[in-house]
Amino acid sequence: MILSFLGLLVAGVPVAFSLGLAGAVGIVTGLSPTMLATLGTNTYNSIAKYPLIAIPLFILTGLIFERAGVAARLVHFAQALIGPRHGGLGLVAVLVCMIMGGMSGSGPADAAAVAMVMLPSMTKAGYPKPFSATLIAASASTAILIPPSVALILYSIVVPGVDLRALFAAGLFPGILAGLALLVPAFWLSRLHRWEAPETTERPPLGESFKQALPALFAPVLILGGLRSGLFTPTEAAVAAVAYGVVVGIFITRELGLRDLWKLFGEAAVISGVVMLIIALAGIFAWAGTMLGTFRELAEWIIGLSDNGTLLLVLIMLAVLAAGMLLDAISIYLIMMPILIPVMQHFGWNPVWFGILLAMNIAIGQFTPPVAVNLMVTTEVARIRLEQTIGWALVFVVAMAAALALVAIFPDIALWLPGVLGYNV
């Protein structure tokens, strides 16, 4: 089953169909061809889960805020805060990506919105396009950590007993830490190469830019505040976010019309359809692997490699990083978690903390070639080749890996906030 999955991937078959076909191969060879009758039930059961409703809604939220002109207003506000300096626009790009991540929950959507606004300004200020594209792609990867995160929603469904609110709270400080880790090389490189002369940059008025950015800044407050107060569940928070985005786009920024909204519904449906197809067909793979005992055998093999939990954690992180270079976050969670859950339970790792470590690792993979989804978006906007970004990508990989190491060594960076808020960790 696993060999057929890898073979299909190498042959260029899309991940969703590779998972479904490999699961069918496992059923035919290890169980009985008559068990193929379960394919329909397994695909349905995989997506017939109430929390999954939040995924298409948060995808729609990101698209609405992107088209509503929110990114441009956030950029002006960040420029007013940071002011003219060497590396100022680089700092602005990181900051805006982190705020946008608190609305969309999707790295590629975040990267597209910020790149469209920031790349022309950064190029005009003297930043090389490969550097700018890589910085924005790396910064947008924090969307997988800063709530609401589509990947963390899926993790809460795959891992039994994990509170999604605790995951959202746990991702906040590691997400901020990852952003700060990217700021250090961005600022240092900008000063070293004297990019963006301060005298050539104008500082927007702080008061006016803050007033214009206020509706965007309130979106994460609405989502997280509503969750904390118990006003709504994570799924209901997604509905509230969509409604708020529509109000902002149509009545406040007035950059969104009813015709635009109809197109956004279509785009969100297409993106959500791809995500749900992966989840549905992965259900076949997961069911076959469980019935065959494949996941149990692999978990026992991993546990048998060493009694040292720290060493195994490092090996798992390296394996997830390698997977993140080739696959998206949703596929990684669906493929690897059935194997990693027994390992996590054997060594007594906190599932919330472990989920955040996986998310940070997958975030690194989102801007690490050869298959870097965020970089694909930003290089397309910048009209450059992906190979031109490899050197810069390595710099930011090291920076974010340092943040990952800190969260691994000091679990309270992730677990302190959900504990204070009273969530089950």
UniProtKB/TrEMBL annotation:
Family per record: Belongs to the TRAP transporter large permease family.
Subunit structure, as described in the record: The complex comprises the extracytoplasmic solute receptor protein and the two transmembrane proteins.
Full protein name: TRAP transporter large permease protein
The entry's keywords: Cell inner membrane, Cell membrane, Membrane, Transmembrane, Transmembrane helix, Transport
Membrane topology label: Multi-pass membrane protein
InterPro entries assigned to the protein according to its UniProt record, in alphabetical order: DctM, TRAP_DctM
Source organism, top-level taxon: Bacteria
Annotated transmembrane regions: 50-70, 91-119, 131-155, 167-189, 239-257, 269-290, 311-341, 353-377, 389-410
Pfam family, one: DctM
Function (record text): Part of the tripartite ATP-independent periplasmic (TRAP) transport system.
Location, primary (coarse class): membrane
Domain TRAP C4-dicarboxylate transport system permease DctM subunit: 3-412
Location of the protein in the cell: Cell inner membrane
Signal peptide annotation: none
Keyword check for Methyltransferase: no
